[in-house]
């Protein structure tokens, strides 16, 4: 059995990952659970917190020790904490899977730096279906070209703090790259008033926040006389948790470097 330290263990995604690890998939088992300093559940047994028995694994505010004692870490904390944990993993020589949302370009560059010393899988979405959507979207964009308008609509629960979602940002970047465009130049993140005729090169990205929606992403290619849509709907966080655990199993023993779910799933061209 390989031990897994879960960072952000008491969050919505963290608890989903703990539940999956309870099944001991891929020969993985929980070895550590990390939360932010001052969290009210620090010191409590993980299983007791979830309403079960006892595991002997207590929630800790010391990520360095938890990561060093594990074989691999899974991080769904915050963007800044993920950067710190990436360097802690690098110092300990342990691989880490990072799925935290809201990671910006500067933070990703820091994670890339840490990946010079250890294997890191970083992805805004660990779902197998979503990552297949990324690949299909690129192929569709290359075939359809500039004759089709591109719009992306994402919907998440009311508690989500960042917008647009990291998945929508990645989806837009994938399509823009396939069309040889730069989102910094063509991205549109809201329309109001007399905006004028839509330009042929712009890519629209729009965020909806509603109730308890786990996650929904729709990519639209609009042409004259037809429209193509791809939609991914997550029914529960288990799909992301299972993908993250699969990534943790895959990254064990890999050489230092920054990987993503395309590597884990064998999609890399």
Strand order of the largest sheet: 3-2-1-4-5-6-12
According to DSSP, the number of beta strands is 12
User: What portion of residues is helical?
Assistant: 25-40%
Shape: elongated
Q: Terminal Cα separation, in Å? A: 32 Å
How many helical stretches? Answer: 10
Q: Could you tell me the CATH topology label of the largest domain.
A: Rossmann fold
Give me the CATH superfamily of the largest domain. Answer: NAD(P)-binding Rossmann-like Domain
- Given helix and strand content, the structural type is alpha/beta
**Number of structural domains:** 2
Task: State the order of secondary-structure elements, H for helix, E for strand.
Answer: EHEHEHEHEHEHEHHEEEEHEH
Give the radius of gyration: 20 Å
**Level-2 CATH architecture of the largest domain:** 3-Layer(aba) Sandwich
Concise description?
With 269 residues, this protein is α/β, with parallel strands linked by helices. The protein is built from 10 helices and 12 strands.
Could you please describe the fold and organization of this structure?
The protein has 269 residues and is of the alpha/beta class. The chain folds into two domains: 2-122 and 237-264, NAD(P)-binding Rossmann-like Domain (Rossmann fold, 3-Layer(aba) Sandwich), CATH 3.40.50; 128-234, 2-Layer Sandwich (Dihydrodipicolinate Reductase, domain 2). It contains ten helices and twelve strands. It has helices spanning 12-21, 46-49, 63-69, 79-92, 105-114, 128-144, 166-178, 183-186, 238-251, 261-264, and strands at 2-7, 28-34, 59-60, 72-75, 96-98, 119-122, 149-156, 187-188, 203-209, 215-223, 226-234, 257-259. The strands form two sheets. A seven-stranded parallel sheet has the order 3-2-1-4-5-6-12, sandwiched between helices. A five-stranded mixed sheet has the order 8-9-7-10-11. Helix 1 crosses helix 9 (238-251). The chain is elongated.
